[in-house]
């Protein structure tokens, strides 16, 4: 279940009705095809990063379409020993090139919302759930956060993410950082490396008296979900 800070958003009449509208389609897709992330991780970005704690928003497109890779957080993977190409470039730019674990849960726990625009995908078919209705929900989630009027950093990587950020360009409490997408196609054309987004984000947070993000991922592969005991 979504953690408390998101309850107001997800229980609103508009969003709850939209979720209900696509629920049948999602259940059908998951019953007929192998889909990612696992069904109980679809809302993990909301579950892992409370709305009241969000400091940085990183937007992805849709989950990794390969079986067993996506974990419900944009760009992250819990699969040991496998780092997708885009994530490899993210790790290098953030100073984690020596890390062999692609689990970005550590970032989410510090207030980094790792949100895909589309929250599910059929394995082997990128963008297969595009247009199903997720986009409206995630766009509204962004608006919900922006309307809190708290200092936040919005990282927009690639054209699709930058289009989603257009409505928020005149918000003076936001730092909006744009660059090419971390995919090899973009990065190899000089549109990703050197964007310095991770340092710029922390400079902004410190300027607003907020604790910066520790972008250095744990080398301990046992870092996992927190427990109550």
Write a short abstract of this structure:
The protein has 9 helices and 6 strands. It is α/β, with parallel strands linked by helices and 229 residues long.
Second rung of CATH, namely the architecture: 3-Layer(aba) Sandwich
Domain tally: 1
* Main sheet strand line-up: 3-2-5-6
Name the helicity range: 25-40%
Largest sheet: 4 strands, parallel
**Total number of helices:** 9
> Can you give the mean pLDDT?
91
Question: How would you sum up this structure, described in words?
Answer:
With 229 residues, this protein is α/β, with parallel strands linked by helices. It contains nine helices and six strands; from the N terminus they run ααβαβααββαβαβαα. α2 packs antiparallel against α6. The model has no long low-confidence stretch (mean pLDDT 91).
